[in-house]
Amino acid sequence: MADRKRVLSIDLETYSDVDLGNCGVYRYVEGDFHILLFAYAFDDDDVRIVDLACGEELPKEVTDAIFDENIIKAAWNAQFERTCLSQFFGTRLSPDSWQCSMVWAASLSLPLKLKTAAEVLKTGEQKDDAGERLIKYFSVPCRPTKTNGGRTRNLPEHAPEDWERFKTYCKQDVRTERDIRHKLEAFPLKDSEWDYYHMDQRINDRGVLIDRTLVEQAITCDLMLSEEMSKRAYELTGLENPNSVSQLKGWLELRGIEVSSLGKKDVAAMIKEIDKGGLDQEALDMLKLRLQMAKSSVKKYQAADRYICADGRAHGLFQFSGANRTQRWAGRGIQLQNLPQNHISTLDEARELVKMGCFDMVESIYGNTPDILSQLIRTMLITKPGHIFTIADFSAIEARVLAWLAGETWRLDAFKRGEDIYCASASQMFGVPVVKHGVNGELRQKGKVAELACGYGGAAGALISMGALDMGLKESELPDIIDSWRTANPQIVQFWWDVESAAMETVKDHQELTVGRVGFQFYANTLWLILPSGRKLAYIKPKLQPNRFGRMAITYEGLNAANKWSRGETYSGKLVENITQATARDLLAEAMWRLEQAGLDIVGHVHDEVILEVPKDSITVDEVCAIMNQNPKWAEGLPLASAGYTGTHYFKD
User: Of the four listed, 199, 248, 329, 426, which is most buried by Cβ atoms within 10 Å?
Assistant: First the structure.
């Protein structure tokens, strides 16, 4: 094609004394950092390599191409190459002309590892296994020994033959990535998805400011607590290692306490039982101590400390298309997607006490310092001077999307009226008015647990995992709750079966079908589910096979829970869950795009929540929510709603 852009494929080999895996690429390039090798190819030309470690320089044609917005720069995990080259050139390279082949592969639910993706796609060029040894030798610091003369880094002259192998390996990666890219060209990524990827890169480049004082004091406090709690545990039990699960189990069993697990929930349950009986104070104290020790969240603070860059900000905290199949964002580094919530009303006061190092006062006021440190984790994200966080999130987005996809009219009407969905659900389930803290208010709890667990075909196990028993419900009540919810939501239940039936028919007959707003296609030995946005979910090499219950089910090749490529099974509720969560992701991506187009700086996002760092008094929460709530053209009739708040540090409102 005449208008086809040139592509510069790139792979780098680098050195830094900063641990890439623990600190992320933005911090990595701020250490003693060097680009060693630069392998490249324009389009399908032969792959060339520039040995920067040995004094060679990048050709002018390559340098010009890197800065030419009309030439696509392609790499596997392109954020790494772009960030390294930004450091090399001394200027932040715009992501707009970069394409990440890993992101492209993820859009087809392929592995995020180059080697595994090449194996799955059976490309002509495969990744060389020898590379790991060479990277370990040349790209990371080495331990000084007498035999290596006390050096802390291996250079090309220390192993000339291995250096030549390293160059070959680097060139091979370009060929492998390019072969994958050629395979992916049959399944082009939507232009809007590349726009969202570039937006994601700008968010990662921007980073978020971290309160270094709070982080350092929290780490210090946790260290002191750990020493004190370990000492107290030793005094209570006399065990050589009271942190040892096997030793503590034995100690408890000698005291007549049966132990199946020492997980948090199990320990909490044992504490209740022992407390109720008023027996064995030492065992009770030890279990309470273990629960406190398990609450320690120092790892989050340590991750933040490692990720803080020279500008005081943590960068690279989000992985575009990191969640398998749905392509939702995944967390990296600090993992903002699974931060503990905060519930204390005096959050600001507790925060200041920790920052001042008043740990004894924290303990005397709150009585559980590990819990307070956990609740303060969110607040380590702060704004730069003159700015505030404006935080907004979609309200009950999955429940809204599911009702819209299935055509469950009463739910859509309830959302349009701004009703509490848990009350509305309970009212529909039990045929009586339900008002939070009012008439029949006790039924809201049943509506809530049903809403959390039943939308994707969940049974009693799903209710229990969502905390039904912790809410005070009895196990004997759960089947009736499930039946009531399904009776109240016939269109959603029918949607499960219609989606599964259409998927199975498409796999069997390769015909194109539609269920409501969702399309089904089969080509390239792949089942495609077409979302309302036009984006497609891929189920590779699907088959109809009997499942463990003796009924036919869809199986396909993909990544399993252990991140291994294998054949897995799906079913009605899981398919609907994928469709619903992927659609919610598309709504978030479009909302973030509109916010960025409005000139607002996004510094983070967590599930369906967006964190903006904006000048004080520049925009209101209502104005941000109005932008969030705009329906894309493809989402007509979907009742969106959002709510938000402001602050100079992050917290859960």
Answer: 426
Which residues 6+ apart lie within 8 Å of 496 measured at CB?
Answer: 456, 457, 572, 573, 575, 576
Q: Tell me the average pLDDT across 624-633.
A: 97
Percent of the chain with pLDDT over 90: 72
CA 360/CA 124 separation, integer angstroms: 64
Q: Is 211 a residue whose pLDDT tops 90? A: yes
621 by Cβ neighbours in 10 Å (0-12 / 13-18 / 19+) ranks as: middle
pLDDT value of residue 2: 47
CA 59 → CA 46, 49, 52, 349, 402, distances in Å? Answer: 15, 10, 11, 58, 54
Distance CA 262, CA 272 (A): 14
Whether the CB-CB separation of 221 and 369 falls below 8 Å is answered with: yes
pLDDT for 550:
86
Beta strand spans in 273-421 (E): 313-314, 318-319, 330-331, 381-382, 387-394
- Alpha-carbon torsion 75, 77, 82, 85, what sign? negative
Cβ count near 514 (within 10 Å):
10
Mention every residue, 6+ apart, whose C-beta is less than 8 A from residue 135: 13
The mean pLDDT value of the chain amounts to 92
> What DSSP string describes 601-627?
-EEEEETTEEEEEEETTSS-HHHHHHH
One-character DSSP codes across 109-160:
T--SSHHHHHHHHT-SS---TTHHHHHHHHTS-----TTTTT-SS--GGGSH
> Would you say 559 and 109 are in contact if contact means Cβ atoms under 8 Å apart?
yes
Q: What is the distance between the alpha carbons of residues 1 and 440, in angstroms, rounded to a whole number? A: 67
Using alpha carbons, select from 63, 19, 58 the residue that is nearest to residue 35: 58
Amino acid identity, position 148: N
Distance CA 267, CA 34 (A): 49
Which residue bears the tokens 């829970």? 561
Q: How sure is the predictor about 445, in pLDDT bands with cuts at 50, 70 and 90?
A: confident
Residue pair 361/354 in contact by the 8 Å Cβ criterion: no
Reading the block at residue 58, the tokens are 């990048």
Name beta bridge partners: 382. 209, 649
Q: What's the pLDDT score for residue 291? A: 79
Question: DSSP characters for 33-45?
Answer: -EEEEEEEEETTS
DSSP 231-257: HHHHHHH--S-TT-HHHHHHHHHHTT-
What are the pLDDT digits (tens) for 510-568?
999 999 999 999 999 999 999 999 999 999 999 999 988 889 999 999 988 888 899 99
pLDDT band at 1 (very low <50, low <70, confident <90, very high): very low
CA 541, chain centre distance (Å)? 26
Distances (CA, A) of 181 to 1, 67, 171, 618: 17, 22, 15, 43
Three-state DSSP at 545 gives strand
* Side chain identity at residue 88, one-letter code: F
> Which of the 8 DSSP states describes residue 523?
E
Strand partners of residue 390: 612, 646
What pLDDT was estimated at residue 615?
A: 97
Q: Work out whether the CA dihedral 601, 606, 610, 611 comes out positive or negative.
A: negative
| Positive or negative: CA dihedral 163, 165, 167, 170 | negative
**What was the pLDDT predicted at 341?**
87
Which residue's entry shows tokens 């960030």?
83
What's the CA angle centered on 297, arms 295 and 299, to 5 degrees? Answer: 140
Q: What is the mean pLDDT of residues 153-175?
A: 96
